[in-house]
Design a protein that fits this description.
26 strands; 15 helices; globular; GMP Synthetase, Chain A, domain 3; single chain; Rossmann fold; alpha/beta; binds adenosine monophosphate; 9-stranded mixed β-sheet; 7-stranded mixed β-sheet; 24% strand
Length: 542
């Protein structure tokens, strides 16, 4: 029997029309690359998104066309999120920190028709333009007075504010199949070419509902949200959509992501929640501790993209009264998969037990199903001990990569994540490693994340990374790379002794090497492949 309910496609534009009608007064604050702070309301934002939709049509952008952005977190980028997807084109966000070869590859692979860019990124745009085989339209995301004059870009650079200013603000958001593509984000794979993940309107709206839930990112109209996670990193984890769905105030940091700039913004705008990778919070905490500051408004922060060290969770919660929401996800998952919100019976645990639960990557949000499997694909038990490859499925999980090989990533309806994990009886998943980072020592697997977690608990360790080093007898053994806190006098032997009683004896690192800095990738994650390359000839013999 067919149901008798309205048929309304789940479209990204519906989030915008909701925000305008029901939260028109809510504010969006942006630090601009021009150097000032910009403020306006959701109703202004919606109007300008409609004007930009008209401008895109004038530029000849058709349904399904890809429109690239090379930009930081700001209100104009947010307008493009809605103007591009809402009018039926596909928003392709690009990470300016990627290598030029990768950017050119992505733009050509996606066949972007237009590239919108923040003016401070002009040198990258010029380098891209010199390499592109086919011409595309360049739009500087600024006003006429700030449009950069570029000799390299002889094809005139259009001005964002001119496009808006000359466009009508009447625009009917088209209604179309919710399975149409809305945005495109490439995984910055460490081997081979980047692969495109093509989200749909339906997957995006469903992901938004789930992300906002109390036991997920827990967002409401009472929040002032600061997405530190860039809008080119999996759609800023969905926060630009969540804010419209629930009417939360938004604060965008522009390119200023250092600890001091973030702290000032958090305090000045009374931010209540934020989201970012652990390295961002490392910088923020270093500044706050150094200057003996405290947070007067921030109540919680989402940390994901890489394992959050338990020491960081403890410090944020116990010293700064900021609750940590530890989340796991992937570009291929839109990105949200699991969130570490406690269950009621876990609240009575001892602080140490609770911290151990929070250091795990959390439980599945509705919409994502998961399992762990062995090498033969057999499902493994949820005993909190057995590890296996993590497989996921759900309406916002990738089926095929964009223009991918015939066989997509899909295995019998499940997506193999490439992460090794265990799941406990409460359904809390814990990533023990990326499959390629696991340390294979004499037939046993050692979790590099576990070693890093223990190292992070040492009071004189600023950051740590653990990789496999070649060993004459055991094939691979853990090598710990450490950046010490300023003024630390800790020795390698002291750090190694710190592991006694905290990990099994055979998991203890064999050696410690001190470094000035640990190399980070384009999304702020430790570049383990680079470290492995650097220490390729480091042979452990003892
Ligand atoms: P990306 O698609 O670039 O965001 O990378 C996704 C990968 O980041 C996952 O497959 C994990 O290996 C890793 N990752 C994301 N969140 C976490 C987390 N909370 N803990 C450990 N690893 C994570």
């Amino acid at each position: 029997m067919k149901a008798l309910m309205m048929q309304q496609p789940l479209l990204v534009s519906s989030l915008l029309t909701h925000a305008e009608r029901h939260h028109g007064e809510q504010e969006i604050v942006s630090k601009r690359v021009e150097g000032d702070v910009h403020r306006y309301r959701f109703r202004d934002f919606a109007q300008r998104a409609r004007q930009m939709a008209n401008a895109l049509a004038e530029l000849g952008v058709l349904r399904g066309d890809r429109v690239g952005t090379l930009a930081w977190n700001g209100y104009r980028h947010m307008e493009l999120y809605y103007a591009v997807s809402g009018s039926g084109a596909v928003l392709h966000t690009l990470n300016p920190r990627l290598h030029l070869d990768q950017l050119v590859y992505m733009i050509e692979h996606a066949e972007d028709r237009v590239l919108f860019f923040d003016i401070d990124l002009l040198p990258i745009v010029e380098a891209i333009a010199a390499r592109l085989a086919s011409p595309i339209i360049f739009v500087a995301m600024t006003d006429r007075a700030h449009v950069p004059t570029s000799i390299a870009l002889t094809a005139a650079v259009l001005c964002y504010e001119d496009l808006i200013g000359t466009s009508d603000d009447h625009f009917e958001w088209p209604q179309f199949d919710e399975n149409a593509a809305s945005s495109l984000c490439y995984t910055s794979g460490t081997t081979g070419n980047p692969k495109g993940v093509l989200y749909s309107h339906r997957s995006t709206v469903l992901h938004t509902f789930a992300a906002a839930l109390p036991d997920a990112l827990n967002c409401s109209a009472w929040d002032t949200i600061l997405p530190v996670v860039p809008m080119f990193h999996v759609n800023a984890w969905g926060l630009p959509y969540v804010a419209c769905m629930i009417g939360a105030r938004l604060v965008f940091p522009g390119p200023w992501l250092k600890g001091d700039a973030l702290y000032e913004l958090i305090e000045a705008e009374r931010v209540t929640m934020s989201a970012g990778v652990p390295t961002v919070w490392q910088g923020l905490l270093a500044h706050v501790n150094d200057q003996q500051l405290s947070f007067s408004s921030m109540r919680r922060t989402v940390i994901g993209g890489a394992a959050c060290p338990p020491a960081m969770i403890a410090e944020l919660q116990e010293v700064h009264c900021v609750d940590v929401i530890h989340a796991w996800g992937m570009t291929e998952l839109s990105p949200l998969g699991t969130v570490g919100s406690l269950k009621p019976h876990q609240v009575s645990m001892s602080p140490e037990e609770r911290l151990a639960v929070q250091a795990r990557q959390g439980r599945a949000v509705f919409g994502v199903d998961m399992k762990i499997v062995d090498a033969d694909g057999e499902e493994m038990p949820w005993d909190g001990i057995t590890t296996g490859e993590l497989m996921v499925r759900g309406p916002w999980v990738i089926d095929m990569y964009f223009r991918g090989a015939e066989a997509g990533p899909n295995r019998d309806g499940w997506f193999p994540t490439g992460d090794i994990a265990r799941i406990d009886a409460d359904g809390f998943m814990q990533i023990t490693d990326r499959a390629k980072d696991v340390i294979k020592s004499g037939g046993e697997w050692i979790s590099s994340i576990e070693i890093e977690h223990v190292a992070s608990l040492h009071p004189e360790v600023a950051s740590a990374a653990c990789i496999a080093a070649r060993h004459h007898k055991w094939d691979e053994r853990p090598l710990l790379l450490v950046v010490k806190k300023p003024g630390s006098t800790a020795t390698a032997d002291e750090l190694l002794a710190f592991f006694d009683g905290k990990v099994a004896r055979w998991c203890k690192p064999d050696a410690v090497v001190f470094m000035d800095a640990i190399p980070l990738g384009a999304t702020g994650k430790v570049l383990k492949n680079k470290l492995r390359e650097q220490f390729r000839d480091y042979l452990l013999t003892a």
